[in-house]
Structure formats: C-alpha cells, structure tokens
Amino acid sequence: MTQVARAPKEPKHYRLKQHLSAFAASMPPGTVVPTERALAAEFETSRTTVRQAIAELVVEGRLERTQGKGTFVAFPKLVQPLRLTSYTEDMQAQGFRPTSRTLRLATVKADALVADKLGLEEGAKVLLLERLRLSDDEPMGLEATHLDAARFPGFRKALERHGSLYSTLAAEYGVEPGSAEQTIETAFATPEEAALLTSDPALPALLMFRHTWDVDGAPFEWVRAVYRGDRYKLVAHLSRPEPRS
Hints:
It contains eight helices and ten strands. A six-stranded antiparallel β-sheet has the order 4-5-6-9-8-7. A hairpin with a 3-residue loop joins strand 1 and strand 2. The radius of gyration is 23 Å and the shape is elongated. By secondary structure, it is an alpha+beta fold. 24% of the residues are buried.
C-alpha cells in the first residue's frame, strides 16, 4: 500500500506573519495592530514569535512601531529614484512637501577621504553641511555634504537665499551637476542618528555615499547620507546596452 506523504505543517511564525501582512494590506495606514499578548493568545504561540513576525514586517515597511504607543499599519514607503536630482525635486515630484533642517554648517579640515574625493590636499578647508531631511514634517534622512570652501565663498548667506543646495550652487556659482557615483548599503544608524530620525535603532537603515562631478567633469560634492529603511525605498530603471555591431 502506497503511503501518501503528508504536507509539512505550516510554522506558526509563518502563519502569523501572513495574517499580519494581510491585516496591513486591508487596513488604512495608522491602524493599531493587536497587542503582542493578544496575538500570542490567538495563535497559541510565544510573544517572542510574535515579536519576530512584527519585526520582519517593520523592516519590510508594512508595519511601524512607536515607542510607548504600539504597532501600527505603516504608511507607504517614499520612493527615491536613482537619478541625479535633488531631494527637494524628488519629494515634490511625488506630491510631498520637502523641508530641511540645518544641523551644522561649518568650515572644517578635509581628511584623506574627503580630500581625495574633492581633488584637494589633505587638511584643506571644506564646507560641512549637515541636514535633517523631512517629508511632510516627518524625518526621512540625514545628509552630511562636503564642498570645497575656496570654490564657494559666501556659501552660508547664499544657501539662506535659495534653500535648496543645488539651486544655490547653480544660481550663485554656476555649478550644475553633470554625473555622480552613488553607493548604497544597509547599516545601523547610531543612537544619535536614530534619535534625530525618530526611528528604531535596531532597524537597518540605508547608508549612501554620493560623489558628484559638475558638467565640466570637476568633482564638487561628497555626501554621506543615512535614510530610514522603514520609510524609504530606492528604485532604478534599467535597460540593456545597445548590441554591438
């Protein structure tokens, strides 16, 4: 007699995650998720299993946790196209209101890395502009931008007049971005960065570096940025190269 193989039993963690994923898809953003205690009782599992399922959905951007308040259905992630545009342009194109809060604007000495990226001698004076990026008043990312101080005299007042960095560089100094190289990896924000971003320090963030050249091929910008992994996603449009003749 042929024995029929039994289908493997579905793990409780998987069933719970599927349930929460369906809940998030069917409810409006901001909806409160049942408590860990309630979910553990309903699925007859441990609260550790519940926390694991919730944590995975938070990383995926489907749920969000607020310290002291609970877990909620997340708002859709903001999309960052991988193209040479400013944060202001990208957010406005999606119908959001972008703002920036300047955390620091100072003249510092270039370390070896920054000097190499900007084509300067180590120890040369560079402008360091640190900003908190917001969308509809919600913190999204932190950017630390380095510029050659000698190339952009009077930068502080110029930035105050225009607000947007790229608008300032174009209007005041005739500098237009021509190309850039951007690297992206996952990392954990420092406790200080997580506090400014109002995000959970246990969640992975997006760590980005951008090296930008002007239309004449001269390097003018080196940026280190940390963006919230739970609220931000990157999209690239790819095409195959033209076939060789």
